[in-house]
Amino acid sequence: MKLHELVKVNQRPKKRLGRGVGSGKGKTGGRGTKGQKARGKIPATFTGSLPFYKKLPLKRGKGNLKLSTKPKLVNLLKLNVLKTKTVVDIAKLQEAKIISERETKRGVKVLGNGEISNALTVKLSTSESARKKIEKSGGKVEHA
User: Fold this and answer.
1) Where are the domains of the chain?
2) What CATH class is the domain 72-141?
3) Which of 51, 68, 88, 111 has its Cα between 20 and 30 A from that of 33?
4) Any residues with CB less than 8 A from the CB of 67 and at least 6 apart, and which?
5) Average pLDDT, stretch 59-72?
6) SS3 state at 9
7) 3-state class (DSSP) for residue 120
């Protein structure tokens, strides 16, 4: 192996601080003279004035975070649990444990993801694709 065949390593050597005046980083070790930063250890986030986290806006006293007003989305696939000729409304979905009581307050919308095998009467808001699939299986969509 010859000198020109060696692999290049672009790695700078570690600074050797405080090794005498002739080294260029002796005496103060690159910290300058005097002051807090020249002496002890202080956190990197220290700015010298008001701490950063105190500059951020307060999050207290802003009231309750508003819950989403969007309806709970239910796919057609989950309605296969219900028996044929069932009238599907919010109470029936809650009874079948497809949605929780808390989710009923926002309303429910049926989406057309998956296939439906039962003929159901749906009294909820539905997407266009869900309505087509329900009617194709022999069911009806009634808007409540």
Assistant:
1) 72-141
2) alpha beta
3) 51
4) 106
5) 73
6) coil
7) coil
